[in-house]
Write a structure and sequence with these properties.
seven-stranded mixed beta sheet; five-stranded parallel beta sheet; Rossmann fold; 15 helices
């Protein structure tokens, strides 16, 4: 027989119920709510992960300084995935189960991104891809908790192909253009180059592919690949190499007089041009997902000034998109009035979200944001405003030209 007074027994029941509730809803258990980012913080592509992490932290600092979110302060936990899908999945699982993270912000590598998305889907935790951009995240690997706020691996190469077809091909007066490609040997690289070539065919560009090279991500010696490219005598080389790998490739290619023998096409953004300076290949065709000199959404100037003051650097595309990813999550939480994943999903899908990049709409059918891709022409002149080269021409290719349809996305998504 239980001899404890009735009110004591009732109190213990209530406390027990509250404890269970707190375990199920960690946001109720403390004055802080945790979000996580597992990304690449070491190796040749580390700067992409590092600047992305900086932006997540900066966005949260600003949010906390303004009173937090739903009355709670936000905490960021982070981990290095080393560009390994297994590491990324393990990191995210720990963040969800141990740190009680209510949202995860994605990594650099698309291979890691799909691995992390799988884990977040299993635990019904929000996932925001803002650097990794594999279209599988919104199609074959899709779950309702995942959102992608970066142009995917169809949108980006389609944008480059449109620019090439409209601004480059006409100058050749119908002559067949000799095209070579070099991209890292994993899903991002192969999907990107395949879509670029497919779109050129669809746009009736006269060309032939004369060489295709697939080095490993993080390669340190590109000399054999450069020799093979030049041996094919291409008019243009599509180089879908990024981060520190692109810097390494460019410096080694210059030793072969590469950029005087062919026209280069590569993602020469803030990082590469800052590192290369006047050695940036003048006149190369470039693409970027959010170049700081082209963005002008509400609050962007203030963001850029805060980023510059805190880190003594201009924000990379990854920093800009990462900041907007936190804005999207914040918008969803406020609209839902809750940190609960299902309620935030309901609030975000199909919503138009105000960000420093302007308004972006997250399609209900696949949670892909309707964001542009930027394509242009590189200058190697140091811009006195920024202390580094930027592009001489910048063209925004709208998502309306590059996104797959909802019908196409739904056909690829897992069946309920």
């Amino acid at each position: 027989m239980n001899k404890r007074p009735f009110f004591v027994r009732i109190g213990l029941v209530v406390l027990g119920s509250l404890a269970v509730l707190a375990l199920r809803h960690p946001s109720l258990a403390a004055e802080t709510v945790t979000i996580g980012i597992s990304t690449t913080l070491s190796g040749s592509i580390a700067e992409l992960g590092q600047t992305g992490l900086r932006s997540i932290q900066l966005a949260v600092e600003k949010l906390n300084a303004e009173g937090g979110l739903l009355g709670k302060q936000i905490k960021v936990v982070s981990a290095d995935d080393g560009a390994s899908p297994a590491n990324g999945a393990s990191n995210v699982r720990h963040m969800i189960l141990v740190d009680k993270a209510v949202a995860i912000f994605g990594p650099v590598s698309s291979a890691v991104g799909t691995a992390e998305e799988t884990v977040t889907g299993q635990y019904k935790t929000l996932f925001f891809a803002f650097t990794s951009n594999d279209i599988k995240i919104t199609t074959t690997n899709f779950n309702k908790y995942a959102f992608q706020v970066v142009p995917n691996t169809v949108m980006e190469p389609r944008a480059i192909a449109y620019y090439f077809a409209e601004r480059v091909a006409p100058k050749w007066n119908g002559k067949k253009i000799r095209l070579a490609t070099i991209t890292p040997n994993y899903s991002y690289g192969r999907d990107t180059v395949d879509t670029f070539i497919k779109t050129l065919h669809e746009l009736k560009v006269s060309f032939e592919v004369v060489s295709q090279q697939y080095p490993q991500l993080g390669a340190t010696d590109y000399t054999t690949y450069i020799s093979a490219l030049l041996a094919s005598h291409p008019d243009y080389v599509f180089a879908g190499i990024y981060g520190g790998d692109l810097i390494t490739f460019t410096k080694q290619a210059q030793g072969f007089n590469f950029f005087k023998q062919t026209h280069a096409m590569a993602p020469y953004g803030r990082q590469a041009m800052r590192a290369l300076g006047t050695q940036t290949p003048d006149g190369a065709i470039a693409w970027d997902r959010a170049p700081f000199w082209a963005e002008n959404g509400p609050g962007f100037k203030e963001f850029m000034a805060e980023y510059r003051e805190k880190f003594n650097d201009w924000p990379s595309a990854w920093a800009i998109i990462g900041y907007s990813a936190v804005q999207a999550w914040t918008f969803g939480v406020k609209k839902a009035g809750s940190f609960d994943s299902d309620k935030v999903v309901e609030a975000l899908q199909g919503a138009t979200v105000p960000t420093i990049r302007g308004n972006i709409t997250l399609r209900a059918c696949d949670h892909q944001a309707d964001v542009p891709e930027y394509v242009g022409v590189v200058s190697n002149r140091i811009d006195p405003r920024y202390g580094q080269p930027i592009w001489a021409e910048t063209v925004a290719i709208p998502a309306s030209k590059t996104m797959i349809t909802c019908e196409e996305a739904k056909r690829l998504q897992p069946k309920p």
